[in-house]
Amino acid sequence: MATIRTRQRKDGSLAYLSEVRVKRDGRIVHRESRTFDRRTQAKVWAESREKKFAKNIPAPKRSLELTQATLCKVLEKYREDVSEVRPMGRSKTSNIQFLEKCEIARMAACEIKSSDIIAHVRSR
């Protein structure tokens, strides 16, 4: 879906920001924007980009491993990956270890909702 917004530049002239979003199964799979001097240029560009991406972008796929991973497993993987690049500080390490012991860490990571996070914060 394309959106064209009118913006005023510093010098007072108008610019047209064309934004294109392509969704599959309710998820944004591609997003880009570009600014033009004329509204017609922005509209033509948006239509051409939508046509190009409408057919070529596959829907995002979740692997079985990702859908079954608990928050604890994700945090463990994060610690391993980050420690390969550079050592983590004490406070970050202790915060992650604390989270790994909490009830929310037993939930599937991809199923955690904002209400679960709010409940976790309130229980602390």
Explain what you see.
The longest helix has 18 residues, at 39-56. This protein has a 3-stranded antiparallel β-sheet with strand order 1-2-3, with helices on one face. Helix 3 (71-85) runs antiparallel to helix 4 (90-101). Helices cover 48% and strands 23% of the residues. The model has no long low-confidence stretch (mean pLDDT 84). The chain is elongated. It starts with a strand and ends with a helix. By secondary structure, it is an alpha+beta fold. The protein contains 5 helices and 3 strands. Strand 1 and strand 2 form a beta hairpin. The chain has 2 domains: 2-56; 64-123, no CATH class.
Give the N-to-C terminal Cα separation.
42 Å
Q: H/E element string?
A: EEEHHHHH
Number of β-strand runs:
3
Which value, in Å, is the CA radius of gyration?
22 Å
Number of domains: 2
Tally of DSSP helical segments? 5
Keywords:
124 residues; 2 domains; 5 helices; 3 strands; 23% strand
Write the layout of secondary structure elements.
Blueprint: E1 2-8, E2 14-24, E3 27-36, H1 39-56, H2 64-68, H3 71-85, H4 90-101, H5 114-123
Antiparallel strand pairs: 1-2, 2-3
Helix pairs in contact: 3-4
Give a short overview.
With 124 residues, the chain is α+β, with helices and mostly antiparallel strands. The chain is built from five helices and three strands; from the N terminus they run βββααααα. It folds into two domains: 2-56; 64-123, no CATH class.
